[in-house]
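Researcher: Re-running this chain for the archive, since the previous output was lost when a drive failed. Same request as before.
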Amino acid sequence: MKLSHKDNLYKLEHQSDDNDLIFLYNAETKQTQLYNPLTGDIEIIEDNDFTVQSPMYTLLSDYDRSELTRLALTKWISTENIDNVKCYKIETENRIIWVDKETKLPKKIKFLQSSNDDSIIVFSNWNIDNLTDNDMKLL
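Model: Regenerated structure tokens:
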């Protein structure tokens, strides 16, 4: 997935084996356009509940404020290199999060499951302040 944000626009490009989709959300009008590059179809979705959160919010969204305070006071934050990048390593009951020390952006998340199959998300290619209006077009 690729998420871009400029002004009031959020563009989410989702690629999978069976389908590619592009979502363009306008935070001012609360309108989402869904584009299917395979068929060329554009659909307008009226969804006032659609929200785009920052990656750090998403990482900790299942904790309420008191739990976050408890985690901050009781969990050890260590350091570890991920792909030669110095990261903070934050371990909670549900996941391990590595955050780039320099940019403060997430680098990797490991979701701790009860089964042996842990889910891992790796973030890469963060770009800051270099989007153009053309980048935010649907087509």
